[in-house]
Design goal:
Layout (H helix, E strand, L loop, with lengths): L6 H14 L12 H8 L3 H13 L3 E4 L3 E4 L12 E6 L7 H14 L3 E6 L4 H13 L4 E4 L10 H8 L5 E4 L10 E4 L1 H13 L6 E6 L3 H16 L9 E4 L4 H5 L4 H7 L5 E4 L2 H13 L9 E6 L2 H6 L2 E4 L2 H18 L5 E3 L3 E2 L10
Parallel strand pairs: 3-4, 3-5, 5-6, 6-7, 7-13, 8-9, 8-10, 10-11, 11-12
Antiparallel strand pairs: 1-2, 12-14
């Protein structure tokens, strides 16, 4: 082992070596968690991750109330199940039903069934679903990574998982893991949203981006590029970053004084998505600022909500994204080829942006 080897991998390789050299035979009891912790001087979390990974790889089996046993899978363990695991953050709201429909239709056409897991953007829930899908021996996994822009212990599970099970990320993932990503071109999306306002005479523009997932970072990158291309300075204090857990605090009215300072003097605001645009509209109305007249608003995703609000929004090809992710996974299962995709984004015009040139 080299010095950069993760601790859990050191434990895994030792256990596999002991099994392969016959020290522990099929059906025999493995050292307990406490014994492994004492042997390696590693934390319980590290030991448990190593054992969990070896369960998924078919080396060990945990029996409740008894312990962990060597259990080598039989040679037919690679037989196709015709089941695909799909992990997504939410199910029955916003853009997610269309994404799932796109996935489901393509997989159904290729005679695959779906096992669906919903994380509600919780890391621990993602861990539980991943382990459940692996134990069910699915043929592949399509996953919307939970909080993909911040350190996530599940990254280590994906790093091991990809060695045995074809995987595809949608919306956000981990580029260094060599797992294909199917997403909208979020950098382009941030650019066209900001540029749309700039071309209509707006210079002081605020923005709201999600900090704990990758699309938020990419949209910010494109947003900034639009200003740099026009040689317009950006005031960073007009950009608000938030996490999933911040939403209630930021937009229940208690933080309005903070938001008023953040967006002071802005004639337009680019929002991370249409749901955020609705929060901004309600915030403006609470403070006697007329949405669209006093402050223009642009959303992302062109959801049903944007049509209801008559909100200018950047298009999200929801169904197509799901279908392309499913196509990518099937290609990987059949040929081993790993192919991601970025889908073009463009502004869908409605009445929420005021043209200041007139």
């Amino acid at each position: 082992m080299n010095m950069g080897t993760p601790k859990y991998a050191i434990v895994q390789e030792w256990i596999k070596g002991e099994i392969n050299n016959g020290t522990y035979k099929n059906g025999e009891k493995m050292l307990s968690e406490n014994e492994l912790m004492e042997k390696f001087n590693f934390s319980r979390q590290t030991i448990r991750l190593a054992i969990s990974n070896l369960e998924n790889q078919g080396y060990l089996e945990k029996i409740k109330g008894s312990g962990t046993y060597v259990k080598i899978k039989s040679g037919n363990s690679n037989k196709e199940t015709r089941n695909i695991g799909v992990i997504i953050t939410y199910l029955d709201e916003y853009i997610f039903p269309d994404i799932i429909k796109g996935i489901e239709n393509v997989l159904s056409d290729n005679n695959y069934n779906i096992t669906l897991g919903i994380t509600y953007n919780k890391v621990e829930k993602e861990t539980s679903i991943l382990n459940s899908l692996i134990n069910k021996k699915v043929d592949g996994i399509i996953v919307e990574g939970t909080k993909s822009a911040i350190p996530n212990p599940n990254r280590e599970i994906y790093a091991q998982l990809k060695k045995n099970i074809p995987c595809v990320f949608i919306n956000g993932g981990y580029p260094d893991l060599d797992i294909p990503l199917c997403s909208m071109n979020d950098v382009e999306g941030g650019f066209v949203a900001a540029n749309y306002l700039i071309e209509r005479g707006h210079k002081k523009i605020g923005a709201v981006f999600k900090s704990d997932d990758m699309p938020g970072h990419k949209r910010y990158e494109g947003f900034m590029k639009a200003f740099h291309k026009k040689n317009i300075a950006v005031d960073e204090k007009n950009i608000l970053w938030y996490t999933t857990e911040d939403l209630e605090f930021l937009f229940n009215g208690d933080a309005d004084s903070i938001l008023l300072k953040r967006f002071e003097g802005c004639t337009g605001i680019v929002c991370y998505n249409d749901q955020m645009a609705l929060n901004i509209i309600r915030f403006l109305e609470r403070n006697n600022i007329k949405p669209f007249d006093d402050v223009s608003v642009i959303g992302f995703d062109n959801s049903t909500l944007s049509k209801f609000l008559d909100l200018t929004s950047v298009e999200h090809m929801k169904y197509n994204l799901g279908a392309m992710a499913a196509d990518s996974l099937i290609k990987q299962i059949k040929t081993g080829e790993k192919t991601g995709v970025k889908i073009k984004m463009e502004v869908i015009e409605r009445s929420s942006v005021r043209d200041l040139r007139k």
